[in-house]
Design brief:
Bound molecules: 1,4-dihydronicotinamide adenine dinucleotide, uridine-5'-diphosphate-glucuronic acid
Number of helices: 15
CATH architecture of the largest domain: 3-Layer(aba) Sandwich
CATH class of the largest domain: Alpha Beta
CATH topology of the largest domain: Rossmann fold
Radius of gyration: 23 Å
Order of helices and strands: EHEHHEEHEHEEHEHHEHHHHEHEHEHEEE
Strand content: 15-25%
CATH superfamily of the largest domain: NAD(P)-binding Rossmann-like Domain
Shape: elongated
Helix content: 40-55%
Number of strands: 15
Number of domains: 2
Length: 429
Amino acid sequence: MDVSIIGSGYVGTTVAACLADLGHDVLNVEIDEDIVATINAGEAPIHESGLEERIAEHAGTNLRATTDYDEIRETDVTFLCLPTPQTDDGALDLAPMRAGAESLGRTLAEKDGDHLVVVKSTVLPGTTEEVVGPILEAESGRRIGDGLEIAMNPEFLRMSTAVEDFLEPDKVVLGASSEGAAGTLRELYAPILEREETDLVETDVREAELIKYANNAFLASKVSLVNELGNIAKEYGADAYEVLAAVGLDDRISDRFMRSGLGWGGSCFPKDVNALRAGAREQGYDPDLLDAVVSVNDEQPRRLVALLAEHVPLEGARVAVLGLSFKPGTDDVRKSRALDVIEHLRERGAEVVAYDPVAIENVRPDYPEIEYADSADAALEGADGAVVATDWPEFDDLAFDGMANRVLVDGRRIDVDRDALEVYEGLTW
Ligand SMILES: NC(=O)C1=CN([C@@H]2O[C@H](COP(=O)(O)OP(=O)(O)OC[C@H]3O[C@@H](n4cnc5c(N)ncnc54)[C@H](O)[C@@H]3O)[C@@H](O)[C@H]2O)C=CC1
Ligand SMILES: O=C(O)[C@H]1O[C@H](OP(=O)(O)OP(=O)(O)OC[C@H]2O[C@@H](n3ccc(=O)[nH]c3=O)[C@H](O)[C@@H]2O)[C@H](O)[C@@H](O)[C@@H]1O
């Protein structure tokens, strides 16, 4: 099938490379010329395991990138993989979606033959049919159901395992405006749907949109719940990891997403939970539980720093912050809990020396005044205390000999040699 993908960030690039791998002819349409050049050179514009080799294999044959929307006319299906950021007050910002839909609609006005537009970006219920659809109709001069079809197909991939998640998903959710559109998407995804482990969910567009938010809200809530249980466990002097490992044996609960500690960050959970809260309020419903999910999450970095302060007077102390990315395996620092830890440490007068295996350059522009070390050992050298903010596997081998005080507060339950420390405190254990 001839497929075009508008937006070539984390999702658009992964989807493009994977669909090319499944044998489709794929065109990435992207406004960033550097990304376009990178893909056409057979390289990956983002770091994801398995991505670079797929782009290298398909670029120049059945994968191509362009800044020119007109080339979309050579394709049958277009996926919108545009950003859906949050506004200053936490609501969903649809400006990039509107701009992309306008450009696409104008292009389709000149196209012969039918076209299917699929929203893959995370958008609130109603966006596909009440915002994107009308823009496409107005700009293309076509009507939905007459030469133009529309569908919503949310994406559940995680950063750092994006390729594997896309090609081997638990579920594919298709919300389509017509049986024809659903059929086209089933055909496109055929090799993935043939896997026994993949469930196909066919639904209306509005449900497809909400499934994505419900999924992320559920996962974020699960982590906030384990964090609240972990905070309570800590007060009782109990180990939350032992408690939750037992709880997770109940298959109604499952043992996944049960790691308590510093909480959730990243480019999606924070913005999606906030967009759903703002959307719910707009609909006249107060999402009290989701409000609490966010406030528990917001408290964890402050609790971590308060725990360190019980062992190290923070004013003037040199504190090593180990890990800056929002989770291991990525250099993404958007809404990383590590940044909140740094803020709280600095508010209390500590001098921060930070280390991360890959994310330092993404933090430095916003925090030019803190010190950066080029290894965990260097960060720990002379430190009066240390905190773990990201569970990078290399932190399991930390050595503490160089520290002025061997005090470590662990926000991620890494597997360190606790006997090598004077003080080891887990945030929730
Ligand atoms: N990052 C992730 O792990 C996941 C993200 N999502 C959702 O997918 C959507 C996209 O997210 P990401 O790929 O992370 O965003 P991103 O910010 O990494 O990529 C978006 C790309 O779109 C490009 N772009 C912006 N306006 C454009 C336009 N008018 N025409 C062409 N290109 C344009 C940008 O230059 C950028 O390269 C969001 O709604 C997000 O919530 C869903 C699942 C996973
Ligand atoms: O909508 C999205 O963009 C994506 O958001 C998340 O994926 P991602 O943000 O890449 O990362 P996760 O692995 O889900 O981790 C999110 C945060 O939760 C934290 N976390 C996760 C699991 C856990 O047990 N404990 C915990 O604190 C991580 O440290 C991280 O900060 C979802 O897992 C994906 O399904 C979804 O597609």
